[in-house]
Each structure stands twice: as C-alpha cells, then as structure tokens.
Amino acid sequence: MKKFLFAISLALAAPALWAFSLAQLANTLQQPSNVQGAFSQQRYLKSLAKPLATSGAFTLVPKKGLLWQMQKPFDTTLRVRSDGIMQWTGSAWRNPNAKQIGQSRQIQLFLDLLGGNTQGLEKQFDLALSGSEKQWTLRLTPKTAITRQIFDHIAISGDSVVRKIELNEKQGDRTVMQFSQIQTGKPLSAFAQSAL
C-alpha cells in the first residue's frame, strides 16, 4: 500500500514538473485547484511471468486530498487525506489499514508531494530534474535508510504533464504508471466533492 500511494502521489504532482528549479516546482504544485485524469498501471513482480494490470481515474484537490478510483480489474475507490487512507464501501468510508503501523509517515510523505513541499521530499530523496519543459525527467534517489530499503530509484517523465512514472524497487520488482486525459481546474463530480 505504501508503494502504491507513493506512486499515486508522484503521478498527481504532474503539472508541477515543467519547472526547472525546486522553488518553481513547489510553487507550481500549489497552483491548480484540481487535477483529474485516467491512469493505467502495470506491476512487474519477479515471481510472475506477466505484469499485474490496473486502470481507472483519479481526482486530486491540493491541500485536501486524492480520490483514486480503480475500475479494472475490479472497482476499488480510495481517498487519501490528512486524516488517513480510507476505502469507499458503497455507503461509507472505512480505513482498510487501521492496524497498520507507520501509516502517519506514509501520509506525511504523500502530503509533502500534494502540497509541493520539496523540502519534505529532499529529506528522503535526492532530486535531479533534466531535459526541457517539452520533455523532462525527474529522478528521485533514496537517501534515507527507510527509502533505500524500498526503492532503488524512481523516474518520472512527461511534457506539460506527467506521462509516465516508474518505481524501481530494491528487490527487483517494478511498477510503471501511465497517465492520460489529464485536465486541471475542471468542475468536480458530486462524489469527488463530497469525498474530498
């Protein structure tokens, strides 16, 4: 769950990555009223011959939270806010990880991304941005003991928005996320408004 949410948070930081300084990046992350789009994800596990594939839609409202709606292979809706990670049951929100230790650190990392807190990210990763605003790559290299245990590195690439995120894990597994139909500042659905 931690790796999954970290991937989501990186994806949704997308519009900010046109900037080529961390100060500009932080400022850009705080600008859109919301970011919405579609995602597809492939998770390559060393133990499986074929990747696990998922797809769906997301809505991010900076400083409020993220709505992540997986549609394939099955419907699952998650909400991430400062009060925790919740799953929609069809009638109410519940915490699927209520007994999981360390969730507060995971949420803080996520909120650092949502809020454009590059200082928070720099506490755990070395950030290297290259390319131009038309084609760029942001590479995150772990620098803390905790992040080094999980990730080898993370690569994010795109143009005016994030098009791809690749999480390379220490044990050899890999997650590739592609983003499309990204829009900023569009009206939210009634469900997204009530969720966030």
Verbal overview:
- The chain is an alpha+beta fold and 196 residues long.
- The protein has one domain (27-185): outer membrane lipoprotein receptor (LolB), chain A, CATH 2.50.20.
- Helices cover 24% and strands 43% of the residues.
- The chain has six helices and eleven strands.
- The protein has helices at 2-12, 22-29, 103-114, 118-122, 145-150, 190-195; strands at 35-44, 52-61, 65-72, 76-81, 84-88, 93-94, 125-132, 135-142, 151-158, 162-169, 174-184.
- An eleven-stranded antiparallel beta sheet has the order 6-5-4-3-2-1-11-10-9-8-7.
- Helix 1 runs parallel beside helix 3 (103-114).
- InterPro entries: LolA/LolB/LppX, OM_lipoprot_carrier_LolA-like.
- Keywords: Lipoprotein, Signal.
Provide a concise account of the structure shown.
By secondary structure, this protein is of the alpha+beta class. It is built from six helices and eleven strands.
Morphology call: globular
Mean pLDDT: 78
Per CATH, the superfamily is: Lipoprotein localisation LolA/LolB/LppX
**What share of the residues lie within helices?**
10-25%
CATH first level: Mainly Beta
Rg computed from alpha carbons, rounded to a whole number of angstroms: 16 Å
Pfam families: LolA_3
Protein name: Lipoprotein chaperone
InterPro entries: LolA/LolB/LppX, OM_lipoprot_carrier_LolA-like
Keywords: Lipoprotein, Signal
